[in-house]
Amino acid sequence: MIQVNALGDACPIPVVKTKKAIEQLGGSGVVETLVDNEIAVQNLTKMANQKGYKVSSRKLAEKQYQVVMEIGEDVKEELKTEPKAPETVESETCIPDARANTVVAISSATMGEGDPELGKILIKGFIYALTQLDTLPKTILFYNGGAYLTCEESASLEDLKSLEAQGVQILTCGTCLNHYGLTDKLQVGEVTNMYVIAETMAGASKIIKP
Amino acid sequence: MNGKEEKIVFCKGGGCTAKLGAGLLSHVLEKLPKGPADENLLVGYDSKDDAAVYRISEDAAVVQTLDFFPPMVDDPYTFGKIAATNALSDIYAMGGQVKTALNIVCFPESMDLNILGEILRGGSEKVLEAGGTLAGGHSINDTDVKYGLSVMGMVHPDQIWSNNSGQPGDRLILTKRLGVGILCTANRVGEASKEAMEQAVASMTTLNRKASEIAARYRVHACTDVTGFGFLGHLHEMMDGRLSCRVDGAAVPIFPEAVHHANEFLLTAAGQKNRNHVGAYVTFEDSSFATEELLFDPQTSGGLLLAVDGKDAKELEKELQKAGLPAKIVGEVTEKTDMEIRVRGKVNGMT
């Protein structure tokens, strides 16, 4: 395996460095590229898809992404010929990694209606269960009472941090934090606004609302 | 949409690739206080147009625009010419005439002042060529070089070309080749040929004046200039949510060598941002990867994109070509359909 460090490099340098590494491989193998922005992940993924390499990517930390390309024996031949023309465009959606474009929208600190104590236990269980899914959601949105779950004293912080570390975007509504006096207490993810919430929902392939 | 990454993205590639992403920008702009409406402000930034237009009398309106960016070529004189050509273009995209311009300069004090002199020389030459007067400017000490112009022009209030007033049946005409973003990117990593870069520079330093003046004799319904958001990004704004269009990929004028570099993935971050922003409004049929990339490619000092009456299009295309411009009819505006932009066919270029 060859590792490529393209942290701090602007496009197209990550692609150029990765191509050099693939040349160095001289055949099948794995190239792992580190970049610091998601657009670079997408440009690398685009190249891998065009070349027919198996590709996956994940977020390691803030401003640190890893893109892994597997160059198989069969694509070696193809490398010498023209780049593969894409069939149709539907496949060319540049999904940066394996996370499906599923959005989880959490609007309350409890789950379901009934005893609020039970509701708290259920939502904690639900968020834990999310961490165990084969395909993680792309984004989890927290608004209204849901804002309590990303703040100090939430029982789900550890699970949410684990999801974030795996590349799941955790977004909490800023107006809601403000309303409940939680602005200084956010512990995981980022603050967002209604435009982003609406846009995220509109762009989702699936929305899960517990 | 991508949280923190988006906020700091500022492609270091220079030129219009340095534009902030459209998605990000609209979030910010939407939140600004608007103040009371002024009926003389004919075009403001509600319409995402190329320049602001303010009516000062029944037959005169002022066109105002501002554009500046970091260098995308090494030669300061050439950079000055490109930045000025790009800034002046917004006036032409509104159908206006250039009157005055002010320099906007960011320059490190520690750098050789002759370089600044060369940048400004290039810029002032273009202002003169545009028929305008350089009337002043403002400069600040900064870590990186940036240059551009604030330009004032005039237009008759009844003859303003909005970017979103096209009509079904209009033909789309593009007056410059696409691919300068990809070529400049390839050049930065030493892959672009000298000839291709010369062609790209010639294109980026060609004023849209001639194209605008010729088009003014025809029934132009909408016009914009193709810059940072790429052909498809600007076309999307032109469709305005109420129109659709078909684009003939094979007709789109491009730099042939850019096709080669696109297939080598020498792509900008801004191009990918454009794809993220408008990709959902576009389908490609019988197309190619390079076609897609060229249509999303951010252009520095790109051409005019005109929506012109269907009956006038052939004549206008012919006259633009006769004037030496690589202009082509590239598509047709239709009533709104389920897909806003349909691209069919591949661009012609070297692979």
From TrEMBL, chain A:
InterPro entries in UniProt: DsrEFH-like, Se_metab_YedF, TusA-like, TusA-like_sf
Pfam families referenced in this protein's UniProt entry, alphabetically: TusA (PF01206)
Annotated UPF0033 domain residues: 3-70
Domain of life the protein comes from: Bacteria
NCBIfam families given in the database record: selenium_YedF (TIGR03527)
Name of the protein in question: Sulfurtransferase-like selenium metabolism protein YedF
Species of the source: Anaerosacchariphilus hominis
From TrEMBL, chain B:
Top-level taxon of origin: Bacteria
Cofactors that this protein relies on: Mg(2+)
One Pfam family matching this protein: AIRS
Residues spanning the signal sequence: none
Amino acids binding Mg(2+): 50, 90, 225
Chain residues that bind ATP: 19, 47-49, 67, 90, 137-139
Annotated EC: 2.7.9.3
Domain PurM-like C-terminal: 167-343
InterPro entries per the UniProt record, alphabetical: PurM-like_C_dom, PurM-like_C_sf, PurM-like_N, PurM-like_N_sf, SelD_I, SPS/SelD
Cofactor: how and how many bound: Binds 1 Mg(2+) ion per monomer.
The keyword Transferase appears for this protein: yes
Record-annotated active site: 16
A GO term, aspect molecular function: ATP binding
An example Gene Ontology CC term for this record: cytoplasm
Substrates-to-products reaction catalysed: hydrogenselenide + ATP + H2O = selenophosphate + AMP + phosphate + 2 H(+)
CDD domains: SelD (cd02195)
Entry keyword Kinase: yes
Domain PurM-like N-terminal span(s) in chain numbering: 49-155
Site note Important for catalytic activity, residues: 19
GO biological process assignments: selenocysteine biosynthetic process
Purpose of the protein: Synthesizes selenophosphate from selenide and ATP.
Name of the protein in its database record: Selenide, water dikinase
Originating species: Anaerosacchariphilus hominis
Lineage of source species: Bacteria, Bacillati, Bacillota, Clostridia, Lachnospirales
